[in-house]
């Protein structure tokens, strides 16, 4: 969930370089993100994401509010969320972890560090998938 086209492009490049099998869908604001997640309106057929990359500084509904909505929704709360934002404010970091974010990354971030975090989340997703298939 990112409103800055330059940051979207950099994220796409980093994920492509990681070699991870992925399908990237972008929401440009918090309202669109929640509509996609809840399959509302024009997003009735949006796929359920395995992971959410979330900027905090979003238009319409900011990332903090989006994160709170995700974690309050029984159908969405298990989706891992990684905050990827420019804010290094302690209050944003603490609020995000209090809302059960999986990781908090501050921009700019090196491609190597980004790929390490995405790889760790992917390992987590595989482990969870095994648990639910058992």
Ordered list of secondary-structure elements with their pairings:
Elements: H1 5-18, H2 30-37, E1 52-54, H3 63-72, E2 81-85, H4 90-98, E3 103-106, H5 111-133
Parallel strand pairs: 1-2, 2-3
Structure write-up:
This protein starts with a helix and ends with a helix. Strand 2, helix 4 (about 90-100) and strand 3 (about 105) form a beta-alpha-beta unit. It is globular. The protein has about 130 residues and is mainly alpha-helical. Helices cover about 50% and strands about 10% of the residues. A 3-stranded parallel beta sheet has the order 1-2-3, with helices on one face.
- Proportion of residues in extended strands: 5-15%
Sequence of secondary-structure elements = HHEHEHEH
Count of separate DSSP helical elements: 5
Mean pLDDT: 86
Helix content: 40-55%
Provide the spatial order of strands within the biggest beta sheet.
Answer: 1-2-3
Radius of gyration: 14 Å
* Classification by helices and strands: mainly alpha
Distance between the termini: 32 Å
Shape: globular
Low-pLDDT residue spans:
none
Strand elements, count? 3
Largest sheet: 3 strands, parallel
């Amino acid at each position: 969930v990112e409103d800055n086209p330059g940051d979207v492009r950099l994220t796409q490049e980093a994920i492509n370089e990681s070699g991870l099998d992925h399908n990237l869908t972008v929401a440009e604001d918090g309202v669109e993100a929640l509509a996609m997640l809840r399959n509302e309106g024009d997003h009735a057929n949006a796929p359920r994401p395995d992971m959410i990359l979330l900027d905090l500084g979003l238009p319409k509904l900011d990332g903090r509010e989006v994160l709170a909505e995700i974690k309050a929704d029984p159908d969405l709360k298990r989706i891992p969320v990684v905050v990827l934002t420019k804010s290094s404010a302690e209050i944003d970091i603490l609020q995000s972890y209090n809302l059960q974010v999986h990781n908090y990354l501050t921009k700019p971030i090196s491609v190597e560090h980004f790929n390490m975090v995405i790889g760790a989340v992917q390992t987590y997703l595989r482990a969870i998938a095994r648990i639910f298939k058992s």
